[in-house]
Amino acid sequence: MTLSILTNTLFDFELGENQQIVTDAAEELQSFADMEGTAAIDLLLPSCVPTPGQRRYDRAMGAFDDTVDTLISERQADPGQYDDFLTMMLEREDDNEHSMSESEIHDHLITFLIAGHETTATALSFACSLLATHTEERQRVQKESERVVDGTPTPSNLDQLVATEQVAKESMRLYPPAALLFREAIENTRLGGYDVPAGTKVLLPQFTVHKDERWFENPEKFRPERFSEERVADRPDFAYFPFGGGPHQCIGMHFAMMELKYVIPILMKSVNFELLSSPEPDLNLELTLQPAHDIRMKVNRIDR
Prior knowledge:
Helices cover 49% and strands 10% of the residues. It has 304 residues and is mainly alpha-helical. It folds into two domains: 1-100, no CATH class; 134-304, CATH 1.10.630.10. The strands form four sheets. Strands 1-4 form a two-stranded antiparallel ribbon. Strands 2-3 form a two-stranded antiparallel sheet. Strands 5-8 form a two-stranded antiparallel sheet. The two termini are 24 Å apart.
């Protein structure tokens, strides 16, 4: 679902006939990024070495590149007919009248493809599993959705989905999809009593900071009310940073939050989830935070 939303936004098409091409590319990119299995070995070898993983990657990315080339050609041949992110990248110039090359556009699209669907899918998976085991919070979201949303959410009523936003943020506090960030000191500095020389790589572990009892009482508990305006105002800015911060903050932050606030109410109005797997899943920390085993749920349609 998140991949379909992303391709519709990036390229103005439903997955349809392109589903296998986009899915294969996303899976190969994710496999290399997570360094799973043989992919970890492949990363140590030159890309010209024809390992099975490298050949699979080359095929998937070759098909994806061909698809993007076709889409670029279509937009250049018929300007003004498309309303998507690819068109915006082709048409926009920066303050110095510089426009992106096709190679730069390719690279950006690959980045958005890998970063824009896996993280949101993970956030939704954990949010649904938490709501499945917290009846009061689930009912709160359901009642809010019934009160605010007529059919599906719209930009005009997203701001009114306060309980939904709190659930999404609390889910990402407990299970931040990008659970570790890396930054590099660009000058000598001192941090928490430690000297940090220029060039030092610094690890920023959201997964640990989000569980700090100084900022979150009973941090292992699922309590969306932590994100009321009053409580947020009482905490330091970076007690919670699932999207990073500063000039390198995730460029997709607003898109991801909007997507979560669209999808969660639709799900909660339509179905109930009964969790069949562990409510406290074992976790794997790769490029993104993942449950070590599938989150399994029974889905029951809500009769109206």
